[in-house]
Structures are given as structure tokens and as C-alpha cells.
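Can anyone check this?
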Amino acid sequence: MKRIILFAALVVGLTLFSTGCSSNVSDDSSDKSSETTTTSSVLQSDLYGSYWGTMTMGSTAYDLCFVVSESSAVLYSTMSNYSYTNIVYSESDGTWTVSAYHTDADTSTATASVTGTFTVSDDSYTCVVTMGGGYHVTDTLTRGDTYDGEYGTDVTSY
């Protein structure tokens, strides 16, 4: 019975994770990957890197690495791997966020499938990732070594 419940929880989690935004089509051709203007001393490019930690779904903790760059946000984990290229960086009062949307989503109206919220203190960079419209939240992820295929390199692109 426990296996059935765990399997059902994983299916629901993956479904919510992969369908976390609407699919409004956008004709927005602006370059969303360019450096964002900020009032913070931290630049968008300072955030680029690999953030390591875990996400717990049900009673199972999954190791994961959230890799952010100028043009993509990729989640690699022991459960599955997802890549987003329709991303928007924003900064407010020193807090940086990267929001990742399905490829055809209008970022001005859609809910982000994945959101990473960054905290920078001294030389420490951390991130909390929210997925599926807030249904799944990671533990605090810490920037570390560059991702090198630890959880595979095949990804589902959104």
C-alpha cells in the first residue's frame, strides 16, 4: 500500500511540476536574457552557476542541482531533469529571482513553472527553487561545483 501511495504522490508531483504554467502564446520577441538593470551591487551574471541541495516529495528526498545561466535554467535531479530557455531575471530590493516558463508561454501573463529566489551574503550564494506553482519547494540550495552530469545529461525541454 505504501508503494502505491508513494507512486501516486510522485505522479502527481511530476504532473504539477511539468504543468505549472499556462500555455499562452506570446509574440514577444524581446531578448529576455540580457543583463537586467538593478539597484543591487549584485549583477545578474553573478548568479550564474550550479546550486546543490535536495527537494522532498512525500517522504522521499531527491538530490538536485539547479543550473542557471544567461539563457537557461535547468533542474537536474535523481528524479528527472528539466530545461527551460524562456526565462526572466528580476531584482527587487536586493533579492534576485529567475522565473522559468514553458517555451510558448507569455511571460507577462503566465505563471512560472520554476522560480529560483537567490540570497547573496558576503561571498555566499544560495537559492530556493519553487516548482509547479508553489506545490514543491526545495531546501536551500548552495552554489558549488559546476554540474558535471551527476544526475544525467538527458533533459526534457520546456
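Reply from J.R.: I decoded it. The longest strand covers residues 49-57.
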